[in-house]
Amino acid sequence: MAHILVIGASQGIGLETVKAALAAGHRVRAFARSAGTIALSDPNLERFPGDALSRPDVATALDGVDVVVQALGVPVRDLFGPVRLFSDATTILVPAMEKAGVHRLVAVTGFGTGDSRTAIGPLQRLPFRLVFGRAYDDKDAQEIRIRQSGLDWTLVRPGVLTGGPATGRYRVLDRPSSWTNGLIARADVAQFIVGEIGQGAHIRRAVVLISHPLPV
């Protein structure tokens, strides 16, 4: 069993990853500014209030862990202004991991980041850029920083996220020729992340995750 640091653990994919990792028997350090509000009860859970943009917080949180899951998000209201969270946090995290000797990183970005941008359908491209353009430009910088590192990284690019329980019926698209957008439950993304921690089948690779393709 691994000792996992989940950054961005209080909501979304981060929280679902905490739940899935605990269910699999891992020890979890749940890192978020609001970590104290995480309403889970498990002896293997450690709530760690911290700021992903604080070098001391990140360095302290890395002590004794085996794996880092970076699952940051920004509120919808922040999508229409400058976005720097993803790249700035990664610029802090990567050298801190290298210094601490923590080599395994699973980072959640999104479909449309990096070289998956060309796979966005023509009807989706304009609204995608209008709503998510600033955030995804920053996620591009996040991915570049991770790829340039010496870490054993996996980039997880989910499609359009939905709620609900894990279904276990999702597709792992690991070849650029197969990349397409689609729907996927956050809980299924979390199940993939926990499985990847155990198996390491996609080290130094980017994968797209979907359950159901979107209409073209």
UniProtKB/TrEMBL annotation:
Database matches in Pfam families: NAD_binding_10
InterPro entries with a match to the protein in the record: NAD(P)-bd_dom, NAD(P)-bd_dom_sf
Domain NAD(P)-binding: start-end pairs: 8-195
Gene3D superfamilies the record matches: NAD(P)-binding Rossmann-like Domain
PANTHER family hit by this protein: FLAVIN REDUCTASE-RELATED (PTHR15020), NAD(P)-BINDING DOMAIN-CONTAINING PROTEIN (PTHR15020:SF45)
Organism: Methylobacterium aquaticum
Name this polypeptide is given: Epimerase
